[in-house]
Design a protein that fits this description.
Layout (H helix, E strand, L loop, with lengths): L10 E5 L11 H12 L4 E5 L7 H11 L3 E5 L6 H14 L4 E5 L15 E4 L3 H8 L6 E3 L19 H6 L10 E4 L2 E2 L11 H4 L4 E2 L2 H15 L3 E4 L8 H14 L4 E3 L11 H10 L1 E9 L3 H6 L6 H13 L3 E8 L6 H14 L3 E6 L18 H18 L5 H7 L3 H34 L3
Parallel strand pairs: 1-2, 1-3, 3-4, 4-5, 5-6, 7-10, 10-11, 11-12, 12-13, 13-14
Antiparallel strand pairs: 8-9
Helix pairs in contact: 1-4, 2-3, 7-8, 8-9, 12-13, 13-15
Length: about 450
C-alpha cells in the first residue's frame, strides 16, 4: 500500500527454465528486485531452474501472486525457445499483466513476440522503475548508470540460496560460493561478444569499499567462502584492482576468489599478480581465444601473445592456477590458424586449456560476417584433436611448479577434481571423433 490508499504495483521477475541447466544465482534479476525494494515496491523472484518449475506450476505461481508486471530474463539467444515460452505462459496465465523482457537477447528482439508488451534495451534497474511508475513506452533504451554505488546490493533474500549451494562445481575450491559483479561495461570490441547490448562499452566501476562491503555481508549472511567475480572486464583500472586486493587483505575475510569470465591480461603486471595471490585469488582465466596473430586482429582482441606468455609465467610463479579459453571456427579461420591456437595453448604454460566452438550471439558483430568454414561435426572433431594434443603435452608434470600450487589439502583435492573434469571433456570429444571416423569408414563417406 502506498500513500493515499492506492495499491502499490506488484512485480514478478522470472528466470526461464532451461533443461539440464545448473542452478546459479540470477544476479541480474536480484539487482532489479533490489532497486524496486529500495523504492518500496513489492516484488518477487521465481527461478524456475532452482525451483524446478514446469509450465503448469509456473502458471499457478503467476496467478497466485497476481502481479501487475512480469519481468523475464532474456540473456542469451541460444535459449530463445525457453524465453518465448515463458512469455507465453505468463501472458496466458495473466492476460492483464504487462510482460517485459530484458537482457542481451531482449535488446535485439524489438517486440517480435505477441506475448511481450515491452522490451528493455540496456541496464534494467531504472527502466523497470519507470515501468512500475507507469511508463507506457514499449521499447525502452535504458540509460547506463554512471554511479554504480547508487544501486542496492542484489536482493538475494528473495532467492532460494540454499538450492544454489547444493551444486558443487568442480571449478570451485571452497563452498559455499557465489558471484559478485564489481563493474559494468567493456571498452573492448571483440566481434564474438554481445554484452555491449546490455552494459555498453563505457566501463563503470563500484567503489572498493562498496565491493568489499558486499563480500563481507555475504560471508556474514550465508557463510560464503569463495567469490566469483563475474565482471566482463574487472581490471580495466588496475589501480582499483590493487586497492580491492588491499581491502580484502586488510579485512582478513579469508575469502578465496576467481574471475571465471576471464581477466584482461594486458592490465596485469608481476606485482599486481602477487598481490592478487596474497588477497585470495587462486585461479586466473585468460581469454586468449586465438593463438594466431592475424586472427587476433580479425576478432578485434589484439592480444600481444608474447606478453600473454609472460603474464602466464608470472601467475604460475605466484602459485596461481592458470586456464586459457580458446574459440575454434571463426569466420575466415583456416585449419592451420586453428592449429596455431592449439600450439599456443600448449606452449603458453597454462595448466589447463579449454577449447570452444564459436557461438554466435544475437547482437554480436560476428553475426553479420561471412559463415564459418567448418560445420558442427568438423569443429567437434577439431576440438577432440585439440584436447588430445593438449592433454598429451601435460603428461610430463613440472613438479616444482606443481608444489607451489598444492600448498594445502583442499588445493590437492581441487587439483584432482580439475584434472578429472578436464580429462572427461577430452575423452567425450575424442570418443565422438572416433565414432565419426568409424562411421565414415563404414559407409565410405
Amino acid at each position: 500500500m502506498v500513500s493515499g490508499g492506492v495499491m502499490a504495483v506488484k512485480t514478478l521477475l522470472i528466470y526461464p527454465y532451461i533443461k539440464n541447466a545448473v542452478p546459479t544465482v540470477p544476479i541480474g534479476l536480484a539487482y532489479l528486485a533490489g532497486m524496486l525494494l529500495k523504492h518500496s515496491y513489492p516484488v518477487k523472484i521465481i527461478d524456475t531452474i532452482a525451483e524446478q518449475m514446469d509450465d503448469r506450476e509456473l502458471a499457478r505461481a503467476i496467478k497466485d501472486y497476481n502481479p501487475d508486471i512480469i519481468g523475464i530474463s532474456a540473456m542469451f539467444s541460444e535459449y530463445a525457445f525457453s524465453i518465448h515460452n515463458t512469455a507465453k505462459v505468463s501472458k496466458t496465465a495473466l492476460p492483464g499483466a504487462k510482460v517485459v523482457l530484458g537482457g542481451s537477447y531482449a535488446s535485439t528482439l524489438l517486440l517480435k513476440d505477441e506475448n511481450v508488451d515491452c522490451v528493455v534495451q540496456g541496464e534494467g534497474e531504472m527502466a523497470l522503475l519507470d515501468i512500475v511508475r507507469g511508463s507506457q513506452v514499449r521499447h525502452i533504451q535504458a540509460p547506463y548508470i554512471k554511479d554504480l554505488d547508487t544501486i542496492p546490493f542484489p536482493a538475494r533474500e528473495l532467492l532460494p540460496m540454499a538450492e544454489y549451494f547444493k551444486f558443487r562445481s568442480p571449478y570451485v575450491l571452497r563452498n559455499p560460493a557465489t558471484s559478485v559483479i564489481t563493474s559494468r561495461g567493456c571498452p573492448r570490441h571483440c566481434i564474438y561478444c554481445s554484452i555491449h547490448s546490455v552494459w555498453g562499452k563505457y566501463w563503470r566501476k563500484r567503489s572498493v569499499e562498496n565491493v568489499v562491503d558486499e563480500i563481507e555481508l555475504l560471508k556474514d549472511l550465508y557463510g560464503i567462502r569463495e567469490i566469483n567475480f563475474n565482471d566482463d572486464n574487472i581490471s580495466v583500472d588496475h589501480l582499483r584492482m590493487n586497492e580491492i586486493c588491499d581491502e580484502l587483505i586488510k579485512r582478513n575475510l579469508d575469502i578465496k576468489w576467481t574471475m571465471p569470465n576471464g581477466i584482461a591480461l594486458w592490465t596485469l603486471n608481476e606485482e599486481l599478480i602477487k598481490k592478487m595471490r596474497q588477497a585470495g585469488c587462486y585461479r586466473l582465466t585468460f581469454g586468449i581465444e586465438t593463438g594466431n596473430k592475424r586472427m587476433q586482429k580479425y576478432i578485434c582482441k589484439n592480444i600481444d601473445l608474447d606478453y600473454a606468455r609472460q603474464v602466464i609465467k608470472w601467475a604460475n610463479d605466484a602459485g596461481i592456477w592458470t586456464i586459457s579459453t580458446n574459440i575454434l571456427g571463426f569466420p575466415t579461420e583456416t585449419r592451420q590458424e586453428i592449429n596455431d591456437t592449439v600450439d599456443f595453448a600448449i606452449s603458453s604454460g597454462v595448466d589447463f586449456a579449454l577449447f570452444y566452438n564459436l557461438t554466435i550471439f544475437k547482437g554480436a558483430v560476428v553475426e553479420k560476417l561471412e559463415p564459418v568454414k567448418f560445420n558442427a561435426d568438423e569443429i567437434r572433431q577439431i576440438q577432440a584433436e585439440a584436447y588430445r594434443r593438449f592433454i598429451r603435452s601435460r603428461l610430463n608434470v613440472d613438479l616444482g611448479r606443481l608444489v607451489k600450487k598444492l600448498y594445502s589439502f583442499e588445493m590437492v583435492l581441487y587439483f584432482l577434481r580439475l584434472v578429472m573434469m578436464f580429462i572427461s571433456i577430452g575423452i567425450r570429444l575424442i570418443k565422438f571423433r572416433q565414432m565419426k571416423t568409424s562411421l565414415m569408414y563404414k559407409w565410405k563417406i
